[in-house]
Design the sequence.
């Protein structure tokens, strides 16, 4: 999850540094994209066994915390 947030941040930054004028996405669109990718996903080990329960959806408070230092 942390790697996803870092990659998302790096992609937004790269678009800005390439000279494009964009509106930086706030926590709500980031939360929606994050939950679309992660909610319900079961992480598996190399043997294909589920090692953690399905990922819950994250709320706005959780996403704001993850975006805090980005």
Sequence:
């Amino acid at each position: 999850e942390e790697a996803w947030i870092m990659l998302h941040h790096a992609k937004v930054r790269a678009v800005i540094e390439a000279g494009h004028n964009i509106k930086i996405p706030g926590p709500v669109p980031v939360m929606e994209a994050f939950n679309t990718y992660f909610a319900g996903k079961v992480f598996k080990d190399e043997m294909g066994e589920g090692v953690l329960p399905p990922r819950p959806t994250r709320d706005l408070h959780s996403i704001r915390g993850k975006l805090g230092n980005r």
The chain has three helices and no strands. Residues 47 and 53 are 16 Å apart (CA to CA).
